[in-house]
Amino acid sequence: MIHADAVAALRDVAALFYAKNWSLGTSSNYSVVLEHDPLRLLVTASGKDKRKLKATDFVIVGTDAKPLEPSAEKPSAETWLHVVLAQLPNVGAVLHTHSVWGTVLTDRIAENGFWIEGFEMLKGLAGVTTHEHRHWVEIFPNTQDIPALARDVQARLQGPNPLQNGFLIRRHGLYTWGRDLDEARRQVEIFEFLFEVIAQRR
Ligand SMILES: [Zn+2]
User: Fold this and answer.
1) What does the pLDDT read at residue 132?
2) Residues contacting 161, CB < 8 A, separation 6+
3) Cβ atoms < 10 Å from Cβ of 53
4) 92 CA to centre of ligand 1 in angstroms
5) Using alpha carbons only, what angle is made at residue 138 by residues 35 and 192, rounded to the nearest 5 degrees?
6) How far, in Å, from the CA of 5 to the mean position of ligand 1?
7) Ligand 1 center to 79 CA (angstroms)
8) Fewest CB within 10 A of the end CB: N or C in the chain?
9) Would you call the peptide bond into 38 cis, given omega within 30 degrees of 0 as the criterion?
10) In a 3-state reduction of DSSP, which class is residue 99?
């Protein structure tokens, strides 16, 4: 995706997520892959108001989560998670939200994850074709050591039963990714719907 288009598309997504109460204040961060090899990842800069992101509220980072060019803006610590996810094949965008229901749900569920099963809305997740699908949502601890968390997530993206579509961080929020920004945005919509249903039911 070219830089100017990615900035415009991310500003749109940010306005939508703010309106939906999924990303209030300066919470959350969003990224789009400009180039895969070598990685050039456009990511929201640290501490920006998500109600109205400006065209300058972004920074381009590489695989070390540091700006590729001198920039007045700083990437947030959570950029490490975006970098790990953006290096997966077929990932074009990574979205991270801080919603009420994702927070409530991970506050109430003590285990390291939960299954979602039997809901029609599951079919909105990439690769899911039937509501009979059983989807595992892993919950990671809300450590402030983001590089360590990024290593844990990277380990769970490999091997048997790797993470699919997204995961939660306890009392914090959702990470999801997609082939492109539209797919990632749809997955946020699906996950947030399902989180609210499950949390309200409990
Ligand atoms: Zn966060």
Assistant:
1) 85
2) 136
3) 21
4) 19
5) 75
6) 24
7) 10
8) C
9) yes
10) coil
Quick one: DSSP state of residue 106?
Answer: H
CB 12 within 8 A of CB 51: no
Count CA within 13 A, CB hemisphere, residue 134.
4
CA of 48 to the centre of ligand 1 (A): 12
Kindly give the distance from the C-alpha atom of residue 94 to the centroid of ligand 1, in angstroms, as a whole number: 12
Ligand 1 centroid vs 130 CA: distance in angstroms?
A: 31
Å from CA of 169 to ligand 1 middle? 8
pLDDT score at 139? 98
Write the pLDDT tens digit of every residue in 109-152.
999 999 999 999 999 999 998 888 899 999 999 999 999 999 99
pTM given for the model:
0.96
Distance 172 CA to ligand 1 centre (A): 6
